[in-house]
Write a structure and sequence with these properties.
Layout: H1 9-21, H2 25-38, H3 43-50, H4 54-67, H5 86-98, H6 103-114, H7 120-125
Helix pairs in contact: 1-2, 3-4, 5-6
Amino acid sequence: MRFMKDLSQETLSLLQRIYRESKHYRVRQRAHCLMLSCHGYTAKELQKIFQVNLFTIYHWFDAWELRRFCGLYEKKGRGRRPKLNDTQREQIRQWAKEFPKNLGKIGAFIQEEFGIAVSKDTIKRV
């Protein structure tokens, strides 16, 4: 059994404040999990409460032990990397001004110029 122990009253009050006031859902969820663990809830019980994998609970505990309050937040770099960089997006915007109703032509330019295949939806988002 793994519990969050020896959390000071000040730390608990900060966790409670984060749980109530953070604008990020996942941060609030992690803070709540740590508070419940400190009150004696097991990892299995926390798994059922938060409806996550048991490994997720242990990852939250590990992040807390390594980085404390910073461990509540996600690290930068999560998710898929963008296909296009800023200069490429700017070039696509210029092509869109030249050919506003021809996404196929812009897609061909992107393939030819950058060697990247993108969908029409991606071009629209740019």
